[in-house]
Amino acid sequence: MAVLAEVEKKRSDGVALPQPRAAVLAMPEYHPPLAGREALRLDFNENTFAPSPRVLAKLQKLTAEGLTVYPEREPLERIVAAHFGLQREQVLLTNGVDEAIHLLCCAFLDEGDEALICTPTFFMYDVSVGMMTSRLKRVQTDDSLEFPFERFLAAITPKTKLIMVASPNNPTGATVSREHLLAIAAAAPQAVLMVDEAYFHFHGETTLGDVGSVPNLIVARTFSKAYGLASLRIGMLAGDARLISYVRKVSSPYNVNGVALAVLPEALAEGARCADVAERGELRADGHWPAAQGAGRGDARARRAAARPVERSGVRGLCAHHPRRGGACDARDRGAAGVARRDAVDAE
């Protein structure tokens, strides 16, 4: 208490105290909802069933000694890369997509650089960009809530260094075609295009197959949603090996915990069942996962899934805890789901 009193006295006396960077003072702040997670969980788009039984079985086999070891990310990056048909150098595992966004901004943005997003979208884009530059350009959707492709292209300038597009978008559910995404990448060769595919399993179309052939493309994926690993915080970036090497350089070597790394191969092995759950939106009546209808990357059921990604992913229609403005969002009915017309605040 005496130390606090001394600090307060110095403040009142006009003594200079440490201050953060100007960008930190100006950046928006994310305030997660504090209502608890015990009720019907639709606000964060979590898997409300369970992860794969193989994940649970692996958790039960973890040892006390294993918890004392620093986690090695590289062996798991090789497994993940092989699963998605990529090279290890093209993959970086992250502490969820939230950290992936943060790392991209650290690696590719300086003050004065421009970042480009379409709003409403995932709020963490605002937070991470604001930490590095004040030049965030937002292209607002119209009343249709569809992605404004032509206006978005027109907003690209020579100063654009990072472009972030979520498809399906959080919170509107709008999707951007692969053709349009590749056109954006071609229109801004000086910029990194990050395609946020956190909700891939609820849509099925991906640009992951373009990694390596499009030099400025990076794809973000999360294992929090359909895979049901939100509590373990693990995601990935996949892109040109040169770009990924820069992101790896600013990443902590132990950013992903050992428990998440241990169960990830088991979650990947159940990928076909994961896609089936995403499409059907339900477990069998006996509480077990549905039988897999296919196997491997590009499962046909995943490609057909989610003509209504908003409804299936449980995108929040009311947002009483939005970090910018309190109260319920101005939502409109879009099929079976009301969608928020503000930036989304759930985690990836």
Number of strand elements: 9
Instruction: Please write the string of helix (H) and strand (E) elements.
Output: HHHHEHEHEHEHEEEHHHHHEE
**Which CATH class applies here?**
Alpha Beta
**Which structural class do you get from the secondary structure elements?**
alpha/beta
Q: What percent of the residues sit in helical stretches (DSSP H or I)?
A: 25-40%
Largest sheet: 7 strands, mixed
- Which strand-content bin applies to the residues? 5-15%
Mean pLDDT: 79
Number of helical stretches of at least 4 residues: 13
Q: From the alpha-carbon coordinates, what is the Rg to the nearest angstrom?
A: 21 Å
- How many structural domains does the protein architecture include? 1
CATH architecture: 3-Layer(aba) Sandwich
Oligomer state equals single chain
The CATH topology name reads Aspartate Aminotransferase, domain 2
Low-confidence parts, pLDDT < 50 over ≥5 residues? 282-343
Roughly how many Å apart are the termini?
39 Å
Tell me the overall shape: globular
Per CATH, the superfamily is Type I PLP-dependent aspartate aminotransferase-like (Major domain)
